[in-house]
């Protein structure tokens, strides 16, 4: 509900800002100013939001009045850099809407790419990739080299995130070669260098990573662009950890953190905290290390940000509190790790599948479109695929049939079971001593002891055998088995198992706490020697699995 309210407020604010045609007019001093002039003023007043907003409005209104689609899109894109995160996507959608109306592939692709970049900045990589792939479909139909390489950079960033480092290195190198010659895109050039250094660190080439980071610092200084300076230092700080220069690692990452906090870059902030924590941990400064690991956890809790190397953060915390015998905190971080694994598995499986199916495959097909394909092979492959699909469909139908049939059978058996106040009595036939060729007094004695044995629930004893029970009855195992077979109508093992199961069913009906037990715990409760024997005995007696019986009892009682 809160999200809906925020979205409505955002839309209202956008309408207020954009509904300028009737009550908003250019001042005479700005009326004939160029878009470049307005953009320079937007950048100049970055620290004064009220003045900056004025120029943002002028820029967009000017473009709308001139019906200049390209500049309208640029006007919306300007807002993406300076608005709060919640409003950025609203403007991104307006930008896409304008681009689609223009029917210009470059503008449409650029708009989707910008929206993807917003998502990437928010660490929503799945949505970022979706927009990158749409952008690529449009941009690949143009000759706009800048946009083509901007898509390459974005896809390379996803590949880095997924762990396809060598593929990312190849793309980032292409981007470096292109953006180095583009005098208007220093930041793109420096970003590409920074990302390349990260890749080299990931493949273990720490020396080359250092060289790339130093190159980035030198090039930034040469170009008069210091925006990426702290990011290169942050990258080198992490690299120094892997070179076992722990104190230098802490110093460099700590130096870069204020910039990350100012940029609200919680992803790199979390990574920085993790490697500072690891450095302190390796220096045997446990408490300092723990304080940084908990900062990583705090970002995970608030932002849901996790990547594969940060998974170790929770493993360290679990092992630490296990060594301290702090079960509460150990369990807490085990749950965090399970949650992290769930996010990683879903996110990476989706991203990996799509980037190879919809980007790499598209590129591969573009390179191979002139290669002839055998029609016969296609037919053969189609036939194989059809056979596989038919086979899978048949298997699914069979599984569904078995599942539905079993559910019906279990329900019928459960209903029959519940109609009785208790399980069927184990007593069998009336006493006929002469049938068994056993002394009548012996038969009467054994039957009397059996009744007492059943009444006192002694059948719950573990590892009970006919020999043990015969000794307790002052009889012999052969006589005991014959009497049970005749008067209880079943063999010894079945007789004991049924008594245990009948008793458990009566308890499950009354004891809600018992319904929470696992099969292993239930088996222990009634004296079965193994979980599997218990499960088999329960099914044999009731015609349904334990789990089904318990779920039905929870629903009905």
Automatic annotation (TrEMBL):
<feature type="transmembrane region" description="Helical">
    <location>
        <begin position="383"/>
        <end position="404"/>
    </location>
</feature>
<feature type="domain" description="HTH araC/xylS-type">
    <location>
        <begin position="444"/>
        <end position="552"/>
    </location>
</feature>
<dbReference type="Pfam" id="PF12833">
    <property type="entry name" value="HTH_18"/>
</dbReference>
<protein>
    <submittedName>
        <fullName>Helix-turn-helix domain-containing protein</fullName>
    </submittedName>
</protein>
<keyword id="KW-0175">Coiled coil</keyword>
<dbReference type="InterPro" id="IPR018060">
    <property type="entry name" value="HTH_AraC"/>
</dbReference>
<keyword id="KW-1133">Transmembrane helix</keyword>
<feature type="coiled-coil region">
    <location>
        <begin position="443"/>
        <end position="470"/>
    </location>
</feature>
<keyword id="KW-0812">Transmembrane</keyword>
<dbReference type="InterPro" id="IPR011990">
    <property type="entry name" value="TPR-like_helical_dom_sf"/>
</dbReference>
<dbReference type="GO" id="GO:0043565">
    <property type="term" value="F:sequence-specific DNA binding"/>
</dbReference>
<dbReference type="GO" id="GO:0003700">
    <property type="term" value="F:DNA-binding transcription factor activity"/>
</dbReference>
<keyword id="KW-0472">Membrane</keyword>
């Amino acid at each position: 509900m809160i999200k809906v309210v925020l979205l409505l407020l955002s839309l209202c604010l956008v309408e207020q800002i954009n509904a300028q045609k009737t009550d908003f007019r250019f001042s005479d001093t700005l009326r004939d100013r160029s878009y470049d002039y307005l953009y320079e003023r937007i950048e100049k007043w970055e620290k004064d939001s009220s003045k900056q907003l004025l120029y943002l409005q002028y820029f967009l209104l000017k473009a709308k009045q001139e019906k200049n689609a390209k500049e309208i899109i640029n006007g919306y894109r300007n807002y993406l850099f300076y608005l709060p995160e919640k409003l950025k996507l609203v403007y991104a959608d307006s930008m896409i809407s304008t681009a689609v109306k223009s029917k210009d592939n470059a503008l449409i692709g650029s708009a989707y790419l910008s929206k993807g970049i917003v998502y990437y900045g928010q660490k929503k990589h799945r949505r970022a990739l979706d927009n990158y792939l749409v952008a690529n479909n449009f941009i690949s139909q143009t000759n706009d080299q800048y946009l083509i390489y901007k898509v390459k950079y974005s896809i390379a960033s996803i590949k880095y995130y997924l762990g396809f480092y060598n593929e990312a290195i190849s793309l980032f190198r292409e981007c470096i070669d292109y953006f180095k010659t583009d005098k208007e895109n220093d930041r793109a050039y420096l970003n590409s260098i920074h990302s390349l250094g990260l890749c080299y660190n990931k493949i273990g080439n720490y020396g080359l990573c250092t060289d790339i980071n130093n190159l980035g610092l030198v090039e930034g200084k040469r170009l008069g662009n210091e925006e990426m300076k702290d990011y290169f230092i942050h990258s080198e700080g992490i690299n120094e950890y892997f070179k076992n220069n722990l104190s230098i690692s802490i110093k460099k990452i700590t130096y870069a953190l204020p910039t990350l906090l100012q940029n609200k870059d919680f992803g790199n902030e979390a990574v920085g905290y993790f490697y500072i924590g690891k450095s302190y941990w390796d220096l045997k400064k446990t408490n300092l290390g723990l304080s940084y690991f908990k900062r990583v956890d705090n970002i995970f809790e608030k932002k849901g940000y996790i990547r594969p190397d940060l998974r170790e953060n929770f493993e360290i915390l679990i092992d630490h509190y296990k060594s301290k015998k702090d079960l509460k905190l150990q369990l807490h971080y085990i749950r965090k790790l399970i949650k992290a694994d769930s996010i990683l598995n879903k996110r990476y499986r989706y991203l990996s599948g799509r980037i190879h199916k919809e980007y790499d495959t598209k590129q591969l097909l573009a390179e191979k479109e002139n290669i002839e394909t055998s029609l016969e092979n296609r037919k053969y492959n189609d036939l194989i695929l059809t056979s596989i699909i038919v086979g899978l469909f048949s298997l699914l139908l069979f599984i569904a049939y078995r599942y539905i049939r079993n559910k019906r059978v279990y329900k019928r058996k459960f209903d029959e079971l519940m109609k009785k106040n208790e399980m069927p009595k184990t007593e069998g036939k009336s006493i006929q001593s002469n049938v068994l060729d056993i002394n009548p007094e012996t038969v009467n004695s054994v039957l009397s002891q059996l009744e007492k044995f059943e009444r006192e629930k002694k059948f719950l004893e573990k590892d009970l055998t006919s020999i043990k029970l015969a000794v307790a009855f002052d009889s012999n195992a052969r006589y005991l088995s014959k009497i049970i077979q005749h008067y209880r109508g079943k063999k010894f093992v079945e007789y004991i198992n049924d008594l245990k199961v009948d008793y458990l069913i009566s308890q499950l009906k009354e004891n809600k706490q018992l319904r929470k037990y696992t099969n292993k715990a239930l088996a222990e409760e009634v004296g079965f020697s193994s979980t599997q024997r218990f499960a088999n005995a329960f099914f044999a007696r009731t015609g349904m699995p334990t789990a089904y019986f318990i779920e039905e009892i929870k629903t009905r009682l």
